[in-house]
Amino acid sequence: MGATATREAYLETGLTVLADSGYGSLKLAEVCKRLGVTTGSFYHFFKNWSAYTSQLIEHWYTSRTESEMSAARFVPDPQQRIDGLIEYGLALPHGAESAIRTWSAIDPAVRKVQEDADRARYDVVFDAVLELLDDRVIAHRYASWALYLLTGYEQTTLPKDVDALKWAARHITTDLSREVRRHRREQRAMAVEKSRADESRD
């Protein structure tokens, strides 16, 4: 086994192990076996297993949440931003996400990173809906709905049904579009009423 691997490959392989087999299967031997390398190669990149798992969870946060949420904030149109966030959520490695939630239940450091990820995902949806509707209560409800959908899907013991997840996600965007249309009608009606009131004063 003279193969070599990169630090990035070790981290991505760890996420693959989590996705395929769950937190209980995340072990040094399994990661090295999948990469076709010896454990000696592992210690070239990581001081010990604890250092690896710490870097693994940070890598998950950076690559699967932080970078995606930062990119989303550069989309100027809030409706397009939400559509992109829905596609991002559907494409997540849900097996790995579920395994990390299990891991977070027993490791406080992992739980902190999980909380940061949940908050970042919630915040970007909240801000986009707030731009559309200018209502913090409704923005909270939609952001919570999106997060509840993902976490529920990842934690259920029922067979995974991606089509059902897509259907549910599209209902969020459909309902939000209906809410935006209602909001705009109300805004137009208020503008007309204000204009009439201004004219009557004149």
Automatic annotation (TrEMBL):
Domain HTH tetR-type span(s) in chain numbering: 4-64
Region (Disordered): 183-202
Signal peptide: none
PROSITE patterns, A to Z: HTH_TETR_2 (PS50977)
DNA-binding region: 27-46
Basic and acidic residues bias (residue ranges): 187-202
Keywords noted in UniProt: DNA-binding
Identification of the protein by name: TetR/AcrR family transcriptional regulator
